[in-house]
Amino acid sequence: MSQLTASTSATTEAAVALHHRSHRSRRALWIALWILALVLILPALRVGPVFDDWFHAFDIHDPQASAWQRWFGLYDFFHADQVAQGREYGVLPWWTDDRLSIAFFRPLSSLLLALDHRVLDGGGFWSHLHAALWFAGVVWAAARVQRLLFGERDARWATVLFALSSVHVLPLAFVASIYAHVTALFALLSFECLIRAQRDGAMRWRLWSALWFLIALAGGESALVLLPIAGAYLWAELGWRRALVWLTPHAVATALYLVVYFSLDMGTHHSAAYLQPGSLEFFRELLPRFLVLSAGLLAAFTPDLWLLGAQPVQVTVGVVALALSALALRAVLRGMHETARRRLVALCAGALVALLPVTAGIPGGRLLILPSVIACALFAMAGRRAVQGWRDRKRTALLLGAWVALCGIGLHPLFRVLVPLDMARVGKEIPAAAHALAERCKGRAVLGIGVPDPNAAYLSAILISMPDTQRPQALHLISMAPGRHHLRQTAPERYELTVDGAFLALPWARIYRDTPLAAPQALELRGVRVELLEAGEERTRLGLRVPGEACWVTLERGELVAVEAGRQVEWVPTGR
Question: pTM to 2 decimals?
Answer without folding.
Answer: 0.93
